[in-house]
Structures are given as structure tokens and as C-alpha cells.
Specification:
Rossmann fold; 3 domains; 6-stranded mixed beta sheet; 41% helix
């Protein structure tokens, strides 16, 4: 007579069926190995093997010889990538324009088909056979979690919960970049100099983290919010900082640095030492020292994820946070 089943085994089977019934695992997705089931539920390997065989016999899982167990049903086959960017990416020289250009050219360089959609407001989700790559489209990214549909999120963190399991993300350590800017300016100008920060929009998380990193390493400074990321809209704040007689200014992106330098020239004032952020095209034309976004690493990571997803990989998503690095230029560091 077979041994009666222990409560632990009964509970393990019920939990696995519950997850499969509720759609937590996607059709066509590879399921846990026997060893992983044993470790997850505190079972012996032999018991886990018998349990998995039972689940396969009951139709909850299907067995692929030499490969493992899979969730029944056809997997969604991805055939290309859909780049879904906010319409701000149309603005020449902007962060979004630079990011879109880098990502699009990288995908084309490895022969991955991609489409581009630019929208002011929330647009429809791309077709199911495309891997969405989002920039500044948080509502769309959040909608994919309950659908258990894979996507990539750029320069942001994925929504919590189910979204974090299917949305791969690439972002920058903005706090570290702000701290690096403070260290560069302090080393160049000394701790007793007067510092200022020209920040981006007041409620923008990235601007806030850059400012926080700077203040933690150079606390005695004035922070002025430009209320924007764009030079043509930052004039009043830039002129206020230019008139302040500061020795060194950290601008939370390169367009704000351009606005500050233009304001100083317009007012006939001496230029402070300036450090920007992003390494946008304008930084090179201004010969501006800046904290650079690692554009190439962004592109490499997106290609790697796109290739895996297009090949049918259904493993859980990951979050990658890149450290920005300084690009030292001379003309605006001299005091």
C-alpha cells in the first residue's frame, strides 16, 4: 500500500496549480526544474520528480524530452521591436532624440526589425508580435504587467508587482552622477567657493536624484529649478543663476548648461566653472565637461534583451542601473 501523502506535498501541489491556474506563468514558458521545485517547497528530489510527473499527467504541465517542463499553450512569437517614445524625442539635440537615434541605429546594425511611434499622450499598445521598448511611456509599461507581456523600459524603473517580472529596464544612477559633479567642481574650485545647481523640473525624479547626489557632497549651495529640461524655456532661471556670482554651477542636463552659458554671455558676466549631465551633442559643441550617460552600454543591453526575447526566452525580467561617467573638457572648468 502506498504511503499517504504528507501535508507538505499536498500544499506544494496546490500552490503550483494555483499559480498555473491564475496565469502567473505564461503559455510556452519553461517551468521550474525538479531540483528547483524540491528546493522551493522543501521536498526531496525524488518527491519533487513524482509530483512533476503527476502534474504532467494531469495536463498542468507538458514535458519536452531533454529540455524540461513547460506551461501548456503556444508561446507568443516575437518578430520585431516597437520603439515607443514620447514626442519630446522629436526635439533636435534632446536626450530623447539622442536615445532614439542610438537605439534605432543599434537595432538596425544587428538586423533587428523595428518600428518607431512618437506620441504626446498614451498610444495603443504595439502588436503582440513586437517587443515594446518604451521611453517616457509609464502608463503603457504599467499596462503590460497584468497582461504578462514582455517589454523594455528605458531610463526608468519598472512598475512594481507583476510588471517587474516582464519589463526589463535600463536606467542611470542619477544620484551617483550628481555626486561625481560635486566632486569634480570641488576639486577644481575648492570647498570655500560659492556653488549653485540649475535643476530640471521640480517633480522630476531624475533631476531630484542628481540634485540630492550633489548636495550630499557639496551641501552649501543654492538650488534653482528651471522647471524644464530645455534651454529655450530655461532663460529666466538661467539668468538668475548667471547673476548670482557663483564660482561653480552644476546643471542637471546639458541643455540647461547651454542656457546658463548663453545667459552669461547675454549679460556680459564672467563664466563660472560648469558641469552638465547627459553628454548630449550640445556638450561637445560647447566644449562642456559633463556627466555622460553610457549610451553604448544602453544600446548593447537593449540588443541583448531583444535577441533573447525574440528567440523565445521567457525568464523573469531584470533591472540594470548604469553608472554615468565624467567626460572632462577644459573650456568651462577654468575659473
Amino acid at each position: 500500500m502506498p504511503r499517504p501523502r504528507t501535508p507538505k506535498v499536498i500544499e506544494a501541489k496546490e500552490r503550483i496549480i494555483g499559480r498555473l491556474r491564475e496565469g502567473f506563468h505564461r503559455p510556452g514558458q519553461r517551468f521550474l526544474s525538479n531540483r528547483a521545485v524540491a528546493q522551493t517547497h522543501g521536498l526531496s528530489y525524488q518527491t519533487a520528480h513524482r509530483l512533476m510527473t503527476e502534474l504532467q499527467a494531469e495536463g498542468w504541465l507538458v514535458r519536452a524530452p531533454g529540455s524540461g517542463s513547460y506551461v501548456p499553450g503556444p508561446a507568443h512569437e516575437l518578430r520585431g521591436v516597437a520603439l515607443v517614445f514620447h514626442a519630446r524625442a522629436k526635439r533636435q539635440g534632446s536626450f530623447g532624440a539622442q536615445l532614439l537615434s542610438v537605439v534605432r541605429e543599434a537595432l538596425r546594425g544587428v538586423a533587428i526589425d523595428c518600428t518607431v511611434a512618437l506620441a504626446e499622450t498614451t498610444s495603443p499598445l504595439p502588436p503582440a508580435d513586437q517587443l515594446p521598448v518604451f521611453w517616457e511611456s509609464p502608463e503603457l509599461a504599467a499596462a503590460l504587467g497584468p497582461l504578462q507581456r514582455f517589454a523594455v523600459l528605458l531610463n526608468d524603473r519598472p512598475p512594481p508587482g507583476l510588471g517587474a517580472t516582464v519589463v526589463d529596464s535600463f536606467s542611470v544612477d542619477d544620484y551617483s552622477g550628481g555626486a561625481a559633479a560635486a566632486q569634480i567642481l570641488t576639486a577644481r574650485s575648492g570647498r570655500r567657493r560659492r556653488f549653485a545647481v540649475l535643476a530640471g523640473p521640480a517633480k522630476d525624479v531624475r533631476s531630484g536624484e542628481r540634485v540630492r547626489g550633489f548636495l550630499d557632497h557639496a551641501p552649501k549651495c543654492e538650488v534653482v529649478s528651471a522647471g524644464t529640461w530645455f534651454a529655450e524655456e530655461a532663460g529666466p532661471a538661467a539668468r538668475r543663476v548667471a547673476r548670482g556670482g557663483f564660482d561653480a554651477v552644476f546643471c542637471c542636463n546639458d541643455r540647461l548648461a547651454a542656457a546658463l552659458l548663453a545667459a552669461g554671455t547675454e549679460l556680459g558676466l564672467p563664466r563660472p566653472a560648469v558641469v552638465g549631465f547627459d553628454d548630449a551633442p550640445v556638450s561637445e559643441s560647447l566644449d562642456l565637461t559633463t556627466i555622460a550617460i553610457p549610451w553604448e552600454r544602453f544600446a548593447e543591453g537593449i540588443i541583448e534583451v531583444a535577441r533573447r526575447r525574440l528567440a523565445g526566452d521567457t525568464t523573469s525580467a531584470s533591472q540594470r542601473i548604469f553608472a554615468p561617467h565624467p567626460v572632462m573638457r577644459r573650456s568651462h572648468l577654468a575659473i
